[in-house]
C-alpha cells in the first residue's frame, strides 16, 4: 500500500472551491484536476545520469575531487598522476549511482503496483475494470467488500439497508473500530441500477483539497434540489470497506489531492548530524589546505628569489617564468599534493560502514518477531549513527504501545474482588501462561479463547449468588454491541469500542450470553435459559456524561435501570445506603488503577411504573424539541439516573505490547524523552500513559491542558511552568547555534526539581502550535519528563516534531504503525515503522522497521550506540592518519626548496588509503564495541555521551589535528636526523631521497597501525588478520614495486629500484622505526592513563566493571511485581464518538433473518467468536481480525447484520 505515504503535490494555482459533474469527463477535465495517479520516483531512463550526477556533485567533496582531477591533467602543476584521483572518484560516483538507481527502481515498482490496481468504473453506461491511475474526478466507481477506497468519494448507494456502509479507518486515524457512513436518500435510490447511475448528472460544489480528516462541507445539486454534504457521506482514500457487499461512489478528489495525501507530510532528504558536522569540517579543512598552500607558495617565491637563481644552470626556466609565476604554479601543485587531508576514500569507507551496520540490524535475531515472521529491517543505510544520538522519541499509541486488545482481568462484586490467584498459604501468585485457567465447559456458548484464572468467580455464578448474577446481567444488557449468529451457537460480536466487546464476552463466558437484539428487545441466555427483556430506552454514552444506561422490563414485568460508567460519575449518583460498599469498592478501584487497568463502576435501580410512564412522556417531548434538545435530554437523564445501587466494578486491561513498560523505563534511564502523540481520546491515552510507566504516581504533578481559547491555553501553560519552576523567566532562554552556516536559535534545557507530566488535547494543541504560543508550549513541555498529546491530527503530529527539531539541538525519532503516523515519521530525523495491524504504510515511509515496540531499546541502546561509537572512532582515526600523512609533506617542503616534490613514493601515495590502511580501519568500524549488548542494557547511561556529541565534535576534531601535527613532526624529523650523517654497514651512503622516502613511509605505517591498536577495544580474528595482513601487504607490495623486474618493465613508473632491499636490511633503519613509533604513541598513552585515573567517563567505569567480571554478567534479578494502589481513576473509553444508541432504538434498526435457536446449553462443544484473544484473559479486537494476521480479509459483523423491522409502536 505504498500509495498512502507519498509526497503531496501542490497545484500551481490555489483552488478556492471544487466544482464537478457526475459522468461528465469533458466538463471536469476543463478544471485540470489531478488524476488518481501517484508518482514518487525521481528519475526516468533519460534523466537518471544527468540528474544523479548533478545531485552528487552538489556534495562539496565530490565537486572538490572533480576540481582536483582538472588540475592534475595540467602538466605544469601536476606532480601526481591523474589516476590517483579519477579511479576513486569514479568508484564513489558509481556506487552511489547504483544505490540511488536501486532505490528509484523500487519506487517505480511501488508506484506501478498501486497505480495498476483495478477498480470498476462506470464508463459509457457500462462497468469497466480500470486501473487506479486512470480514474478521474467525476467518475462513478463501484467498490466491493474488503477493497481499499480508491479515492475520496461521495457515497451514492450501497447494498445495505438505509444505504449504510461500514469502513475501517485504521490507516487514517489509527482507530480499528468500524465506522458507519450513510448516503443521501436521493442517491441511495439509485441502488446498483447501472442505467440510473449512468443517467445521474448531479453537480457537487465543495471545499478545495485540504488535510482536515474530520470535516467536509459541500452541496449536491440534483433534479433542481440542493442537498447538504458532510463528513458522514464521504469515503476517504485509505479506508477499507468492511461488511458491505458493494457500494457506488462519486470521485471528488484523486491522487495527491485526497485528504490522506494532503496529510502525508513532505519527504525530506535526511542527513545525520555527523554528516552536517562533516560538511562544516570539510569547509574548515579546505580553508586550512588553502592556508598551507599559500604559505608554501610564498616560501617558493622567496626561495626562487634567493636560491633559485643558482639552480638555473641545472633547471633552466622557461621564457617569461618569474618567481611570482613559479609561486602561483607551486600553490596549485601543493593543492594536489596535500589533497589527502580529505581523501575520497573517506566517503567510500563511510558508506561501507553504514551498509555493514545496517546488515547487523537486518540479521539481528533478537529483533525478529517469530509470530509474524517479521525481521527488523534497516530501510535506509545512511542514518545508523544517528540512532546513537536520539534525545526525543515521538510515539503513536494504538498499535505501537498497545495491541488494541482489551482483556477482562478483574472485577469487584458486592465488596469482594475476583481475578487474583492465591496458593495454599494465601500468598498471591503472579499469573503467567502456565497458570491454570477456569473451566467453562458448563457453558456451551462460552468463547473458548476467553481466559480467566480465579475459580471463585465461577463458583459464585454456579451457586447463584444474586449480586454476581445481577452484575453479569447488567454486562449482558447494558451495551450497544451487535450480535450475529450465522450458525446456531456460533456467535460473533461487533462492538463500537473494544472495551464493550470484552465486557460482553466476559458476561457470555460466565453464563449470561447476549444473543440478539431488536429495536425494542434484548435476548440473552441466563445460565441456559432464554430470556427476552423489553428495551424501553437507551441513555447513551458521550464524552460529557461518561456513562451509559438502559431501561428494560424483565420477563416478569419489573422495570429496571442498569447503568455503567466512570466510577467518579457513578459515585455521585448512588443512594446513601451504598456508602459502606462504596468505601470497599473504592479500595479495589485504587488497586486496579494502580495496576494500570481501565476501571468502570456498575449500578442499577428498580423503577416505579407510574413515574416511568410520566418520564417517558417528557422524554418524548424533549427528543422532538427544536430548541436545546440536548440540554433537555441531559436534564431528564440526570433526573432518572440517581439513587442508584452499587453492584461493583470491572477492570479491563488495554493490553500493552510485550515489554513496553520495561522499554520506556530503559529509554528514560538513557535520558531519552518520550512524547506520545495519539488520535485517541484523553482518558484512554492518559490511562495507557500510566500503564506503560510513562506517567507515574510518583510524579509531582501531571498537568492537563484542555483550554478552548487562545488565552485559556496560554494561561494553563504558564500556570504549569510556574508550578514546576516558580522563579522561571518569562522569556525563553536561547543559545546561539550555527549549523551548516545557518544561524538558528536553540532553546536551552531547563532543570526542574521533581518529575512532571503534561497531557494536552488536540483542540488546545492547535492553539499551542500557533506562532505566538509555540515557544511557550515547547518550553513547558520540555520541562516535563513525559508529554502526551491526545486527539491530534496526522499533520499536528508532524508539526510537534518540527517544533522540537527547530528549537532544540536534539535528534528526534518518530515511531508509529499506521498511515496517520506517516507525516510524523517523515518529519523526524529518524522514522521507525511498526509492521502491525494498521497496514504497512508506516513501514513503507520509515527508515527502520520491526514488529514490536520493545525492539526500539535494542535498536537504540545497542545498534545505535555501537554505530555512533564506530563512526566516531573511524572519523577520529581517519583524520588522524591522513593529517599525519599530509603534514609530513608540509614539513618536507621546507627542505626541498618548496618544489612540490612528494616525500613518499607515488605508489605509496596511491595505495596508502586504498590498500595499506583501508581494511584495518574498516575492521575496527564494523566490529568495534566497547561493551557487549548485555552490559549495554544493564547500563543505559552509556547512551548519554552520544546525545551530547562527546565522541566526535569540533573539539574532538581539533584535538585530532593537534595529535596529527605532533606525530608528523616526529615522523619527519626523527628519520631526517637519523639518516642525515649515516652510512650503511659496508660504509656506503644511505642518505638519499629514495631511502629517506621509504623509511618515512614505513615509520608512518607502523605509527598509524599501532595507534589503531590502541583505539580498538574489541579484537576479533578478522581485525587481527586485517591489521597484520595490511602490514604484510605493505612489505610484499613494496619489495615487488622496488624490484629489478618492475623497473625493467616500466622504468618511469617504478624508479625506486632496489631501495627496499638495501634499506630494510639495516639495523639502524629498524631502530628508527621503533623509536618513532614509541614517540608517536607515548603522549597518547600518558594522556589516556591520566584521564581514566582523574576523570573517568561512564564508558571507562563500565569497561572496568566488565574487566572485573571477566565473564558475562549474571542475569538481572527478576523483579517481583509490586502491588500498588492509586487514587487516580482510569478513564474508561466506551468509544471515540457518540454511541450507536439512537440507531439501535430507531425504527430503522437492522437485523438479518432470525435463526431458530434453542437455549444453546444442549451443545456438547464450545463455540467461537470473531475475535482473537491473546494473553492471559479474553482479548477483544474491534475489527474481529486475528491479531497478527497478515491478510485483513476476515469477515467482521456490524449493524448490517440486521434488516429493517417495522413496528407499529415505534
Compile the SSE list and pairings:
Layout: E1 18-21, H1 25-29, H2 48-56, H3 60-72, H4 83-115, E2 118-123, E3 126-131, E4 140-144, E5 152-158, E6 164-168, H5 170-173, E7 179-182, H6 185-188, H7 194-199, E8 203-206, E9 218-222, E10 225-229, E11 234-235, E12 240-242, E13 246-253, H8 259-262, H9 273-306, H10 323-337, H11 345-363, E14 377-378, E15 390-395, E16 402-413, E17 416-418, E18 421-422, E19 428-429, H12 455-462, H13 466-477, E20 482-487, E21 490-494, H14 498-509, E22 512-518, E23 521-526, E24 529-539, E25 547-553, E26 559-565, H15 567-571, H16 579-594, E27 598-606, H17 609-623, H18 629-640, E28 645-656, H19 660-669, E29 673-677, H20 682-691, E30 701-705, H21 710-724, E31 734-739, E32 742-747, E33 756-761, H22 762-768, H23 774-782, E34 786-790, H24 794-807, E35 811-816, H25 822-827, E36 830-834, H26 841-844, E37 848-850, H27 855-893, H28 906-916, H29 918-927, H30 933-938, H31 944-947, H32 954-980, H33 993-1015, H34 1021-1041, H35 1044-1049, H36 1059-1063, H37 1067-1094, H38 1098-1109, H39 1141-1145
Parallel strand pairs: 15-29, 15-35, 29-34, 30-33, 33-34, 35-36, 36-37
Antiparallel strand pairs: 1-8, 2-3, 2-4, 4-13, 5-11, 5-13, 6-7, 6-12, 8-9, 9-10, 14-37, 16-17, 16-28, 18-19, 20-21, 22-23, 23-24, 24-25, 25-26, 26-27, 27-28, 31-32
Amino acid at each position: 500500500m505504498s500509495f498512502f505515504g507519498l509526497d503531496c503535490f501542490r497545484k500551481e494555482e490555489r483552488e478556492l472551491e471544487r466544482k464537478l459533474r457526475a459522468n461528465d469527463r469533458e466538463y471536469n477535465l476543463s478544471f485540470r484536476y489531478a488524476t488518481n495517479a501517484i508518482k514518487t520516483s525521481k528519475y526516468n531512463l533519460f534523466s537518471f545520469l544527468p540528474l544523479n550526477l548533478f545531485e552528487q556533485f552538489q556534495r562539496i567533496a565530490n565537486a572538490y575531487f572533480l576540481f582536483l582531477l582538472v588540475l592534475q591533467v595540467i602538466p605544469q602543476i601536476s606532480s601526481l598522476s591523474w589516476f590517483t584521483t579519477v579511479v576513486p572518484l569514479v568508484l564513489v560516483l558509481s556506487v552511489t549511482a547504483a544505490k540511488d538507481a536501486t532505490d528509484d527502481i523500487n519506487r517505480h515498482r511501488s508506484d506501478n503496483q498501486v497505480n495498476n490496481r483495478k477498480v470498476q468504473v462506470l464508463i459509457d453506461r457500462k462497468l469497466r475494470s480500470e486501473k487506479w491511475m486512470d480514474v478521474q474526478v467525476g467518475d462513478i466507481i463501484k467498490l466491493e467488500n474488503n477493497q481499499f477506497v480508491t479515492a475520496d468519494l461521495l457515497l451514492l448507494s450501497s447494498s445495505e439497508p438505509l444505504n449504510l456502509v461500514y469502513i475501517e479507518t485504521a490507516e487514517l486515524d489509527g482507530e480499528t473500530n468500524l465506522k458507519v457512513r450513510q448516503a443521501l436518500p436521493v442517491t441511495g435510490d439509485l441502488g446498483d441500477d447501472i442505467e440510473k447511475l449512468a443517467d445521474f448528472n448531479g453537480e457537487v460544489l465543495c471545499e478545495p483539497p485540504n488535510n482536515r480528516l474530520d470535516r467536509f462541507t459541500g452541496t449536491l445539486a440534483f433534479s433542481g434540489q440542493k442537498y447538504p454534504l458532510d463528513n458522514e457521506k464521504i469515503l476517504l482514500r485509505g479506508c477499507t470497506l468492511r461488511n458491505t457487499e458493494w457500494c457506488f461512489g462519486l470521485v471528488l478528489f484523486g491522487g495527491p489531492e485526497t485528504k490522506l495525501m494532503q496529510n502525508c507530510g513532505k519527504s525530506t532528504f535526511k542527513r545525520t548530524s555527523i554528516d552536517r558536522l562533516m560538511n562544516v569540517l570539510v569547509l574548515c579543512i579546505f580553508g586550512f589546505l588553502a592556508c598551507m598552500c599559500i604559505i608554501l607558495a610564498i616560501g617558493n617565491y622567496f626561495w626562487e628569489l634567493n636560491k633559485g637563481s643558482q639552480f638555473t644552470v641545472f633547471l633552466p626556466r622557461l621564457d617569461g617564468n618569474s618567481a611570482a609565476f613559479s609561486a602561483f604554479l607551486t600553490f596549485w601543485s601543493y593543492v594536489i599534493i596535500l589533497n589527502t587531508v580529505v581523501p575520497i576514500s573517506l566517503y567510500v569507507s563511510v558508506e561501507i560502514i553504514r551498509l555493514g551496520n545496517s546488515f547487523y540490524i537486518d540479521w539481528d535475531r533478537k529483533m525478529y518477531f517469530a509470530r509474524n515472521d517479521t525481521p527488523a529491517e534497516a530501510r535506509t543505510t545512511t542514518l545508523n549513527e544517528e540512532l546513537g544520538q536520539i534525545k526525543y522519541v515521538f510515539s503513536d499509541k494504538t498499535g505501537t504501545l498497545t495491541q488494541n486488545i482489551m482483556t477482562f482481568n478483574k472485577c469487584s462484586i458486592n465488596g469482594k474482588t475476583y481475578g487474583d490467584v492465591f496458593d495454599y498459604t494465601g500468598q498471591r501468585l503472579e499469573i503467567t501462561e502456565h497458570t491454570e485457567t477456569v473451566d467453562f465447559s458448563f457453558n456451551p456458548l462460552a468463547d473458548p479463547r476467553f481466559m480467566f484464572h480465579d475459580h471463585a468467580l465461577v463458583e459464585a455464578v454456579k451457586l447463584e449468588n444474586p449480586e454476581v448474577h445481577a452484575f453479569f446481567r447488567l454486562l449482558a444488557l447494558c451495551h450497544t454491541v451487535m450480535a450475529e449468529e450465522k450458525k446456531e451457537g456460533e456467535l460473533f460480536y461487533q462492538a463500537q469500542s473494544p472495551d464493550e466487546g470484552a465486557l460482553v464476552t466476559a458476561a457470555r463466558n460466565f453464563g449470561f450470553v447476549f444473543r440478539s437484539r431488536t429495536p425494542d428487545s434484548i435476548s440473552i441466555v441466563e445460565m441456559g435459559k432464554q430470556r427476552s427483556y423489553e428495551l424501553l430506552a437507551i441513555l447513551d454514552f458521550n464524552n460529557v456524561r461518561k456513562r451509559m444506561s438502559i431501561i428494560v422490563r424483565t420477563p416478569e414485568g419489573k422495570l429496571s435501570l442498569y447503568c455503567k460508567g466512570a466510577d467518579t460519575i457513578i459515585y455521585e449518583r448512588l443512594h446513601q445506603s451504598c456508602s459502606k460498599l462504596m468505601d470497599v469498592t473504592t479500595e479495589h478501584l485504587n488497586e486496579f488503577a494502580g495496576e494500570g487497568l481501565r476501571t468502570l463502576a456498575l449500578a442499577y435501580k428498580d423503577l416505579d411504573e407510574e413515574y416511568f410512564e410520566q418520564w417517558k412522556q417528557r422524554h418524548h417531548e424533549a427528543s422532538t424539541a427544536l430548541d436545546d434538545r440536548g440540554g433537555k435530554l441531559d436534564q431528564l437523564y440526570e433526573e432518572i439516573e440517581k439513587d442508584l445501587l452499587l453492584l461493583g466494578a470491572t477492570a479491563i486491561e488495554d493490553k500493552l505490547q510485550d515489554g513496553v513498560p520495561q522499554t520506556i523505563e530503559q529509554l528514560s534511564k538513557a535520558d531519552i524523552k518520550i512524547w506520545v502523540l495519539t488520535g485517541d481520546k484523553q482518558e484512554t491515552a492518559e490511562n495507557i500513559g500510566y500503564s506503560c510507566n510513562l506517567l507515574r504516581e510518583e510524579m509531582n504533578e501531571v498537568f492537563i491542558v484542555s483550554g478552548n481559547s487562545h488565552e485559556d491555553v496560554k494561561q494553563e501553560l504558564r500556570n504549569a511552568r510556574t508550578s514546576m519552576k516558580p522563579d522561571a523567566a518569562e522569556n525563553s532562554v536561547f543559545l546561539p547555534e550555527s549549523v551548516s552556516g545557518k544561524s538558528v536559535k536553540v532553546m536551552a534545557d531547563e532543570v526542574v526539581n521533581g518529575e512532571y507530566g503534561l497531557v494536552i488535547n488536540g483542540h488546545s494543541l492547535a492553539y499551542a502550535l500557533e506562532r505566538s504560543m509555540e515557544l511557550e508550549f515547547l518550553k513547558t513541555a520540555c520541562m516535563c519528563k513525559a508529554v502526551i498529546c491526545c486527539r491530534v491530527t496526522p499533520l499536528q503530529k508532524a508539526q510537534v516534531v518540527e517544533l522540537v527539531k527547530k528549537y532544540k539541538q536534539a535528534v528526534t525519532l518518530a515511531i508509529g504503525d499506521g498511515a496517520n503516523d506517516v507525516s510524523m515519521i517523515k518529519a523526524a530525523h529518524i522514522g521507525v515503522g511498526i509492521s502491525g495491524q494498521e497496514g504497512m504504510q508506516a513501514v513503507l515511509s520509515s527508515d527502520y522497521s520491526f514488529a514490536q515496540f520493545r525492539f526500539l531499546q535494542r535498536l537504540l541502546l545497542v545498534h545505535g550506540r555501537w554505530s555512533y561509537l564506530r563512526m566516531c572512532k573511524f572519523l577520529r582515526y581517519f583524520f588522524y592518519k591522513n593529517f599525519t600523512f599530509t603534514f609530513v609533506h608540509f614539513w618536507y617542503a621546507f627542505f626541498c626548496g618548496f618544489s612540490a616534490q612528494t616525500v613518499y613514493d607515488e605508489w605509496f601515495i596511491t595505495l596508502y588509503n586504498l590498500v595499506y590502511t583501508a581494511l584495518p580501519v574498516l575492521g575496527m568500524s564494523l566490529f568495534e564495541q566497547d561493551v557487549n549488548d548485555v552490559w549495554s542494557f544493564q547500563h543505559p547511561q552509556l547512551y548519554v555521551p552520544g546525545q551530547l556529541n562527546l565522541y566526535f565534535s569540533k573539539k574532538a576534531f581539533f584535538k585530532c589535528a593537534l595529535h596529527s601535527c605532533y606525530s608528523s613532526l616526529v615522523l619527519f624529523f626523527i628519520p631526517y636526523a637519523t639518516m642525515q650523517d649515516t652510512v650503511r654497514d659496508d660504509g656506503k651512503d644511505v642518505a638519499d631521497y629514495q631511502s629517506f622516502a621509504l623509511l618515512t613511509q614505513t615509520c608512518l605505517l607502523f605509527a598509524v597501525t599501532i595507534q589503531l591498536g590502541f583505539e580498538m577495544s574489541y579484537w576479533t580474528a578478522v581485525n587481527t588478520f586485517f591489521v597484520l595482513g595490511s602490514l604484510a601487504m605493505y612489505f610484499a607490495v613494496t619489495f615487488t614495486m622496488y624490484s629489478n623486474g618492475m623497473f625493467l618493465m616500466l622504468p618511469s613508473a617504478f624508479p625506486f629500484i632496489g631501495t627496499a632491499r638495501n634499506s630494510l636490511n639495516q639495523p639502524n633503519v629498524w631502530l628508527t622505526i621503533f623509536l618513532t613509533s614509541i614517540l608517536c604513541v607515548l603522549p597518547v598513552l600518558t594522556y589516556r592513563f591520566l584521564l581514566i585515573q582523574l576523570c573517568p567517563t561512564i564508558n571507562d567505569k563500565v569497561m572496568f566493571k566488565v574487566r572485573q567480571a571477566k565473564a558475562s554478567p549474571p542475569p538481572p534479578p527478576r523483579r517481583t511485581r509490586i502491588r500498588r494502589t492509586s487514587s487516580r481513576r482510569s478513564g474508561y473509553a466506551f468509544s471515540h464518538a457518540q454511541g450507536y444508541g439512537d440507531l439501535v432504538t430507531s425504527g430503522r434498526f437492522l437485523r438479518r433473518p432470525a435463526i431458530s435457536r434453542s437455549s444453546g446449553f444442549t451443545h456438547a462443544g464450545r463455540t467461537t467468536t470473531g475475535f482473537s484473544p491473546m494473553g492471559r484473559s479474553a482479548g477483544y479486537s474491534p475489527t474481529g481480525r486475528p491479531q497478527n494476521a497478515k491478510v485483513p480479509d476476515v469477515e467482521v459483523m456490524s449493524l448490517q447484520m440486521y434488516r429493517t423491522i417495522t413496528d407499529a409502536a415505534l
